[in-house]
Write a structure and sequence with these properties.
With 221 residues, the chain is of the alpha/beta class. The chain has 9 helices and 7 strands. 42% of the residues lie in helices and 18% in strands. The model has no long low-confidence stretch (mean pLDDT 86).
Length: 221
């Protein structure tokens, strides 16, 4: 009886999410327990469905973030996952809901394959490790992604999961982790790199700095 009731509730929540978030049933079914457990809300959900070519710049703060994005973003999105997320056994059901490839953020480069993917009206999600600062070696990831966006003409949609740093999926070194932490996904309006550069300061601003600033806006918004 109890198991049957739980299954019915799960199914009902999944169907509701499928309609509300315009995702596949597979995605909604996997999203349902996370949405209920963490009281998930989404600000700017319409931006997650921006017209391609679009590049989602996701701030990667915990192991839960890829699961959320694989559930919320259109299922034709190509997700560029870090090696741990690409191999993690518990994430396998989520990886099956979309297209994924693995990458090492320290050796990410401007790939012609990714540029072609975007030029063909594709969607791409890149995960930026949390805590990257300008003028450091990891910052090269922002430079590479900005160049990919420029060459493909793709618009950027920055995404941050507020509260993710304090869930049990965050690094164990974080002393403020909580099992029932509420989550809010924030997605900002799609903008091109030239628009972001102009907004930041025109010719004096770099594409990487414009992208970095936009991702920071999502994290603070």
């Amino acid at each position: 009886m109890v198991v049957g009731a739980i299954a019915l509730v799960w199914l009902a929540v999944a169907l509701a999410l499928c309609a509300l978030r315009r995702c596949s049933f597979h995605q909604a079914f996997l999203l349902a327990p996370i949405a209920v457990w963490h009281r998930l809300t989404v600000n700017g959900g319409e931006h997650l469905r921006s017209k391609p070519p679009v590049l989602y710049a996701v701030l990667h703060q915990s192991h839960l973030d890829p699961a959320l994005m694989l559930s919320l973003l259109p299922n034709d999105t190509l997700h560029i996952l870090d090696e741990q997320s690409a191999r993690s056994a518990w994430l396998e059901p989520w990886r099956e809901a979309a297209r994924t490839i693995a990458f090492n953020p320290e050796h990410f480069f401007v790939s012609r394959r990714l540029v072609r993917h975007l030029k063909g009206n594709g969607r791409l999600a890149v995960y930026f490790p949390d805590g990257i600062e300008p003028d450091t070696k990891p910052y090269r990831l922002y430079r590479a992604v900005a160049r990919i966006a420029q060459r493909s003409g793709a618009e950027i949609v920055p995404v941050s999961v507020h509260g993710s740093r304090r869930t049990m999926f965050a690094p164990a070194s974080n002393p403020s982790r909580r099992p029932l932490k509420g989550l809010k996904v924030v997605a900002l309006e799609a903008r091109t790199i030239p628009d972001l550069v102009q907004e930041l300061g025109g010719e004096k601003a770099s594409a990487a700095a414009a992208l970095y600033g936009r991702v920071k806006q999502a994290d603070e918004g």
